[in-house]
Amino acid sequence: MKTLQRVASIKKIEQGNIVTPQGFKTAGVHAGLRYSKKDLGIILSDIPASVAAVYTQSVIQAAPLDVTKDSIQVEGKLQGIIVNSACANACTGKQGLKDAYEMRNLAASKFDLAPHYLAVASTGVIGEYMKMDKIKRGIELLEPSPADKDAIDFEQAILTTDTVTKNCAYSVEIDGVTVTMGGAAKGSGMIHPNMATMLGFITTDAAIESADLQLALSTITDQTFNQITVDGDTSTNDMVLVLANGKAGNQALSPTHPQWDTFIQLLKQTSESLAKQIAKDGEGATKLIECNVFGTESKHAAQIIAKTIIGSNLVKTAAYGADANWGRIIAAMGRSGIDFNPQQVTIAFGDLVVLEDGEPVDFSEEIAKAYLEQDLLVINVTLKEGSETGTAWGCDLTYDYVKINASYRS
Amino acid sequence: MKTLQRVASIKKIEQGNIVTPQGFKTAGVHAGLRYSKKDLGIILSDIPASVAAVYTQSVIQAAPLDVTKDSIQVEGKLQGIIVNSACANACTGKQGLKDAYEMRNLAASKFDLAPHYLAVASTGVIGEYMKMDKIKRGIELLEPSPADKDAIDFEQAILTTDTVTKNCAYSVEIDGVTVTMGGAAKGSGMIHPNMATMLGFITTDAAIESADLQLALSTITDQTFNQITVDGDTSTNDMVLVLANGKAGNQALSPTHPQWDTFIQLLKQTSESLAKQIAKDGEGATKLIECNVFGTESKHAAQIIAKTIIGSNLVKTAAYGADANWGRIIAAMGRSGIDFNPQQVTIAFGDLVVLEDGEPVDFSEEIAKAYLEQDLLVINVTLKEGSETGTAWGCDLTYDYVKINASYRS
């Protein structure tokens, strides 16, 4: 798979979201877990949908993940996802698990579904118990519809310290019919996926079996959700779920389908869009940082180097200060665990080369500063070890990151 | 070796430093690499000394490290260390290497030593060339003495963003004679050793061959210098050097010497003292954080967990905000790469238990906040996987860290 290639026929749908694909409804309400913001949402498919999931690789996994895995293993199908913010229901012991099952059952009862057709997701503070009376009341308030306004409500309901909602939608022709995919996500801090990174929900009307959908998701996760970092911390609640309800009417997709690569690109583009939106909205961030690494022996090496650079507090503070301090970039590379020849390293901010084949370049600080003051910073690193490439996304480290996290819980 | 045991007979020498052991001189001067602060220093032993060294494990190693390694490999002896701050002489290509050798030769000439008896160390900005005219003039100004005031000058000359000098000295009886050890260090940012962490210089009048001294240093490095982190970044210039000139007159130390463990403890206590001073003076830090992990299967596992907790930006910001957010501690543990049973984890701030066997404890927020507002925060984590222990040290993440690093280079 040529991973940096775009399939020209994939169309971005402006203002698209999780209900842009056929056969999905959603809602978001204020259940009272938070003072005034919306805090409970649901996505429903009209019919049971194929499902793919990836979860945090943390040893500590929150109760909702157990419940979701339990739901999926029954039939490999889901018809809905019930999500709350404010409380992560993580490290809450037996009571937490009981609460997560109860949340699933309450939603199943409200929407007349078998409980195992529902996934549960939570995000918020770790170690606090769910306020189940509020969850119960909130579920009663949910009135899902396919209207965009309800998708916006859902997107808002899943946020924590996020400052903006995250969404996207794309479509492409497969088997002569239009296949559409939409996404919603939340994530701002505790973002350093070894797998997922946050909550990510993707809907599509493509026809595809769950096993193939899982294969597709696993194929692109390492290049998208796993390549963003805000602060190096991996959440206990990370989860990405993809629902595919087949309403588009294409031939079922699988690796032998002639347009399998097209579908992979559709999923990759949707995932990358959500991942970048999350990185850009990192806690306290003022800019998105993209790091492209070229010329490594393996894709893995390029991805590790890119992510180590993006994750460096010193690179992140220099980005905030618009300081062309490339020494911190090569220092981060040096500790990435990947071996390379320092005398063959070239580093550029955008097109501005600052280190060439290991020797400092006498560049214009003025031009560098002007470039670094923009809200997108692209760091391009070239080695001469091979022909592979990799990209990672992150954000700068600012006073506001400290402010947000020195007082998050209270 | 019982690593947490202290040898009762080791005495701390108040106001002790690198010239407290017999037969060492030092000096620090303003060479002009910086506007007004001292920026060039030297340590000299009266006679060639046994030497042990550990270096950064970064793929990128600065020129002075190459020169130091080259010096040591000739005879395994050193008589002095010439050190500058302000410029790291890293990523400076062929010119940088030439400059580092020239710095060595100028010092050798001034003090009438064979060049291979001198080590070179640099710290400061990466990617800038050395101002050799200033180095040359500075070396001419160096007038080493065994006086404490010159040790203070040296300690100041090696600092970068550090706010305080770091020093210590201890003594112990070995073979009926007093063996003394002293240390000086710098390090404040780019501190996340995989080996060293910063510049650390230890002097002792103990008699010991270089190979045994290296064994001793390698034994304790993983429990001291390698267990501190300020910001997760590993420098290109990290180096710890130990010089032992034998002036104390003890029988040469080796693993078969009956007091070998005593010497190991002396070196460990000196190293731990310097390491903790560095962690406490982390860029922008307001407090030292110590994390003790008990009850793991291996010491390695305990050290990894402790260091992952100490390294978490979210734990560090919560510490700054005096927020008893233990969820961030267990989240960091979960991503440490060490497997454990979450239902057997107990977490305490000092003596205040907040999570017991995986279940949240209803603790007093007032008492927790009062504890967390102190300038030493001890996080105690207990697992029930085995009987090993490990400790790591770090500091909180504050507005000032961002301030310092958003404008360090300019």
Structural notes for this entry:
Two copies of one chain form a homodimer. Chain A has 410 residues and is an alpha+beta fold. Chain A folds into two domains: 11-277, L-amino peptidase D-ALA esterase/amidase (4-Layer Sandwich), CATH 3.60.70; 288-405, Ubiquitin-like (UB roll) (Roll), CATH 3.10.20. Helix content of chain A is 31%, strand content 25%. Chain A has eleven helices and 15 strands. Chain A has helices at residues 63-75, 93-110, 132-141, 148-157, 210-221, 260-280, 299-311, 313-320, 326-334, 365-372, 399-405, and strands at 11-12, 24-29, 40-55, 77-84, 118-122, 166-174, 177-186, 199-204, 239-244, 288-296, 346-349, 352-356, 359-360, 376-382, 388-395. In chain A, the strands form two sheets. In chain A, strands 1, 2, 3, 4, 5, 6, 7, 8 and 9 form a nine-stranded mixed sheet that branches. In chain A, strands 13-12-11-14-10-15 form a six-stranded mixed sheet. In chain A, helix 5 (210-221) links the parallel strand 8 and strand 9 (239-244). The longest helix of chain A has 21 residues, at 260-280. Chain A is globular. The model of chain A is unreliable at 1-5 and 192-197 (pLDDT under 50). The interface between A and B is large, with 67 and 68 residues.
Descriptors:
homodimer; disordered N terminus; alpha+beta; 2 domains; 31% helix; 6-stranded mixed sheet; 25% strand; 9-stranded mixed sheet; L-amino peptidase D-ALA esterase/amidase; Ubiquitin-like (UB roll); 410 residues
Short description:
The structure is a homodimer of 410-residue chains. Chain A is 31% helix and 25% strand.
